[in-house]
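Extended Data, panel c. Modelled sequence:
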Amino acid sequence: MTTTIKSAELREMKSDIKKTDRAKMAEKLGDALASTYVLYQKTQSVHWNVTGPLFVSVHKLTEAQYEDLAASIDTIAERIRALGAKTPVGLSTYVKNSVIDDQVDWGDAKAMLKQLTEDNLAVADQMREFVKTAEDADDVFTADLLTARIGALEEASWMLSANL
């Protein structure tokens, strides 16, 4: 369940993006942040827990992926702030607002890879939806940011699935 951001809660700033559109984009980016944060944690968990013949390749691959996700978390959060809103806080908020589920048990390496493959695509699909909102608001920077993230997530999904 998304936290609703009211226009009145936004910091005053000079921008060609309407205040109501900035509030709407900050809301969507808050959800993208939540999903990215949960995906980051899940990817790092696979990195820590993978075993078997795929260990070395999956260990290295997931390390690169969670490092990319960590950088994107900061970028998304800073964009929320640049739009004049506060970022959502709290792990429970991220789990609640994420498009993917939290993970408490993994199974074998194949199960891990399958789950992360699907999760990366789910977050990419969520962001694809949000690109439309950004374009409607003429928020080209946010649209570009999300479009770049979609490409990174789809590539991560492909790389993970190539190990199956």
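The chain has a mean pLDDT of 93. This feature is highlighted in the accompanying rendering.
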